[in-house]
Amino acid sequence: MKMRALAKVRPGPGLELIEVDVPRPGPDDVLIRVTATSICGTDLHIYTWDSWSQHRIKPPLILGHEFAGEIVEVGRHVKHLKPGMAVSAEGHIVDHTCPACRAGQPHLCQNVQVIGIDRPGSFAEYLAVPAENVWVNSPELPPEIASLQDPFGNAVHTAHAFDLTGHHVLVTGCGPIGLMVIPVARVLGARLIVATDINSRRLELARLMGADVTLNPAQDHVVEAVRDLTGGGADVVLEMSGAPEAIRQGLEALRPGGHMAALGLTNRPPSLDWNELIVIKGITVKGIYGRRLWETWHHMRGLLESGAVHLAPLITHRLPLEAYEEAFARLMAPGEDIVAKIIMFP
């Protein structure tokens, strides 16, 4: 049986809609019919074929790792999952034997394989994944919301890095994950949430998601404003941008003894005063990668099913898989549109 899939067929910019065989699940795998899949920033890197992609991606490759679907077949060793179940999946397939896995930190596995990066992904009608990576969704959870659990997990993991109860929180970077972390910080008890971004349209979404104050570094004096609003500096910075300037501003805006949870990846090394901003200031910086397995997923379930966090405002476009060129064009050059997450339906 054949299926349609969106793939990086050869080195260079762009993707192609191709027809390939439906994958056959192994004895420990499940076959999933993809009902919704969302585009990640990683997919943009691969689409444009930047330097990271050139060193990491080996075409041909079907992209995509944020998805929801329905199980249609299970391998002969799989007993706890059944056809018809609504599911998503953890995109990091770990080896269970490396030092990180054995230390109880499989999300930091040194030999990880990532869906849509190291093996075929979800920009397709069907996807096969190991059964141990499958997360069963509530039947009431809409597929387009369920497909956002991968990036939402990054936000939830970041927000749980430090205690936010009663604290002043600065969110630097209002991309999709930065926007998601705002309502999570509110649920975790943040007293004041300040969000920064150089895109004024994204700041509109930040306010919609619950930010108390938004600042544009291109127009506002961020450090001075945060110090004035908080009486001396933010208690916690959630660094979601990866922009070297935003990282430096976040460190400057932290109070002495404050905390930074850093999720954003930089495209160049940041230039900052290590002595004054880190050592003498006595701050704590914690790197955040992926999601804790499966602790973060349980946190996500509680936040979504209780209605404490609503992700629907972040879905700005819904398109069929064959409209992928429009989808990527909107994400790379949004113009006057507010573009956060685009959901594609294979």
Task: Report the total helices.
Answer: 12
- What is the CATH topology classification name of the largest domain? Quinone Oxidoreductase, Chain A, domain 1
Q: Please give the CATH class of the largest domain.
A: Alpha Beta
Overall helicity: 25-40%
Supply the helix-strand structural class.
alpha/beta
Can you put this structure into words, describing what you see?
- This protein folds into two domains: about 1-150 and about 310-345, Alpha-Beta Complex (Quinone Oxidoreductase, Chain A, domain 1), CATH 3.90.180.10; about 155-285, NAD(P)-binding Rossmann-like Domain (Rossmann fold), CATH 3.40.50.
- It has twelve helices and 18 strands.
- The chain has helices at about 40-50, 50-55, 100, 145, 150-160, 175-185, 200-210, 220-230, 245-255, 275-280, 295-305, 325-330; strands spanning about 1-10, 15-20, 30-40, 60, 65-75, 85-90, 90-95, 115, 125-130, 135, 170, 190-195, 215, 235-240, 255-260, 285, 315-320, 340-345.
- The strands form four sheets. Strands 3, 5, 6, 9, 10, 17 and 18 form a seven-stranded mixed beta sheet that branches. Strands 13-12-11-14-15-16 form a six-stranded parallel beta sheet, sandwiched between helices.
Could you outline the blueprint of secondary structure elements for this entry?
Elements: E1 2-8, E2 16-21, E3 29-38, H1 41-48, H2 51-56, E4 61-62, E5 66-74, E6 86-89, E7 92-93, H3 99-102, E8 113-114, E9 126-130, E10 134-136, H4 143-146, H5 149-159, E11 168-172, H6 176-187, E12 192-196, H7 200-208, E13 213-215, H8 222-230, E14 234-239, H9 244-253, E15 254-262, H10 274-279, E16 284-287, H11 295-305, E17 315-320, H12 324-332, E18 341-345
Parallel strand pairs: 11-12, 11-14, 12-13, 14-15, 15-16, 17-18
Antiparallel strand pairs: 1-2, 1-4, 3-5, 3-9, 3-18, 5-6, 6-10, 7-8
